[in-house]
Amino acid sequence: MEFANAATSGKMLRRSIVGLLNDAKDNRVTSRLTQVMARVKNEDLISSRGERNVATGILTVLGKAWLNGFNFNKRAILDSVLQAAFSLNPVTGEVVIADLVPIQQLEIPDGATHVELSSGFLNLDFATGIKDLQVSNLVNLPIDATISTVTLTPAGAPVGTGQSFYFLKVVFYQEINAVQYPLNNGAFNALQLIEVL
Q1: Which of 50, 54, 112, 129 gets the most CB atoms within 10 Å of its CB?
Q2: In the chain, what are the domain boundaries?
């Protein structure tokens, strides 16, 4: 029963961010996330054995810590792909990357000419399954030495109860004849859960 709850909770989180996830995941993300959810469930110190659940475990500091920093694409870990500091406003979900120099602060895959950054702010209640995801604007930059401050602002704060989850995504493209094409089906794209509150 507890394993089923961990698997269902992982599925709930993945489905909540399917728009962000579809081009920034590896083929083992389901099992990796289920393992993490099992650890979150283990932080439930209230429920009886066999009835521990993620909805209760995530309320604890350690429960949140297990999920914090989860990378959905193991082939593209955010801390390796983006070597620039960023700040998060937990009230609005706004992520700011100050003075980004793409050619210096990104791990650039062969053939990439452009990078696109976005963020997501999710409210998800594991007990009820009610969710609301607000996605930011997309910032598309040529991979060059131009310095720019990237500001990613979700459309609004998500509604509902439950926990707040914040995501940061980096996607690479190759431009040919003024058209940008996804690079290698997203193998180098990074998506990280940067904060859980």
Answers
A1: 54
A2: 2-196
